[in-house]
Amino acid sequence: MKEPRPVSYAEAGVDVAGLEGGLGRLVARLAATATFPRTGRPALPNGWFANVLDLGGGLGLAISTDGVGTKVLVAHALRRYETVGIDLIAMNVNDILCVGAEPIALVDYIAIPGPDDDLLAGFAEGLIEGARQARISIPGGEIAQVRELLRSHEPDGRTGFDVVGTAVGVVPLERVSVGADVRPGDVVLGLPSSGIHSNGLTLARRVLAQGHGAEAYAERPAELAGRSIGEEMLVPTRIYVPEVMAVLDAGIRPRALVHITGDGFLNLLRVAARGVGFVLDQLLDSQGVFALIAGRGGIPPEEMFLSFNMGTGFCLVVAEADADRTLGLLRAIEPGARAIGRVVADDLRRVSLPEPALVGADKAFHRV
């Protein structure tokens, strides 16, 4: 059998490296707006998972925005919209947690081609379930009918949709966390993902689903333990609010809180601390979907670990003295939580993965 030609994320349509220059210039220009408000000026520079606005009196309002990417195309093909709302809340509240804040609310935006009761009812169902899991309210939102902006898809020519959310949370300014206190010897604790989550779907679809109709997602490979490809792709992103809030409510101050999204474990390098790196030598098991994508797409480990979470959806970096107690709190909610690595001194700021023999830095993993 002919070996598959390796497919990269950029070839699938998402050029992360190519975006860096323009993104950097955009962020640099927007930094000037920090001085505009009379109240609520940003307490952090851009670049962490969320920012915090200083409301005065020592209180901060955390804020973040995100969507669910091309996962909406899978929902569109299968006419299943109830999971998208959960994903939208998860991608936002998980980022809010990363500054040490408690999420409290989210407003949503959905762009649709025209009236569609089934889509809106399913989306609302997911939003309600996601809000229940995250313990937040949805006090408002926006629906836009923008048929001209949305592309139609084969085989039925039905026009797609898109969703975006903005979440807020509260945190005392003295407890804002951006990883500035991370130091060698700290322990990295990992929480399992539910699968692909809402990152890397463009690459996953390119490899596993040839087409836009329901039939493209109908296959049930052995690696998915009975699920179809479409069902696997629509498994909702895990919401980590209960686990993280249990730790914060117990008075434990994690050195860093990290949502493992696009760029995988390289998100650990977003911590503000200098001169540190990470060795992750006890990785959580990855779900079968990742082996399926790698095998069918001929995708090497360095691309897989950059594009996907590979089984770990969230990390807490804690002082060694707090590790056992923190792990106990996490396991009371998620038994699969465990220590996956440690912080080391490293002026080059790298993430080392001994088992797949990879070292990551500067938005890329390399074999060693």
Question: What does the model show?
Answer:
The protein contains eleven helices and 16 strands. A hairpin with an 8-residue loop joins strand 1 and strand 2. Helix 4 packs parallel to helix 5 and helix 8 crosses helix 11. It has a single domain, classed as Phosphoribosyl-aminoimidazole Synthetase, Chain A, domain 2 (Alpha-Beta Complex), CATH 3.90.650.10. The chain is of the alpha+beta class and 368 residues long. Strands 10-12-9-13-11-14-15-16 form an eight-stranded mixed β-sheet, with helices on both faces. The protein has a six-stranded mixed β-sheet with strand order 1-2-3-8-4-5. A two-stranded antiparallel sheet has the order 6-7. The chain starts with 8 loop residues before the first helix and ends with a strand.
Short structural summary:
With 368 residues, the protein is α+β, with helices and mostly antiparallel strands. The chain is built from 11 helices and 16 strands.
Spans with pLDDT under 50 lasting ≥5 residues?
none
DSSP E strands, number: 16
> What does the largest sheet look like?
8 strands, mixed
Number of domains: 1
Strand order of the largest sheet: 10-12-9-13-11-14-15-16
CATH superfamily: PurM-like C-terminal domain
Overall mean confidence score, pLDDT: 92
Fold blueprint:
Blueprint: H1 9-12, H2 16-30, E1 41-42, E2 51-56, E3 59-67, H3 71-78, H4 82-97, E4 102-112, H5 117-134, E5 137-145, E6 152-153, E7 158-159, E8 162-172, E9 187-192, H6 201-208, H7 229-233, H8 241-249, E10 256-259, E11 276-279, H9 288-297, H10 301-307, E12 312-318, H11 323-331, E13 338-345, E14 351-353, E15 358-361, E16 364-367
Parallel strand pairs: 4-5, 11-14
Antiparallel strand pairs: 1-2, 2-3, 3-8, 4-8, 6-7, 9-12, 9-13, 10-12, 11-13, 14-15, 15-16
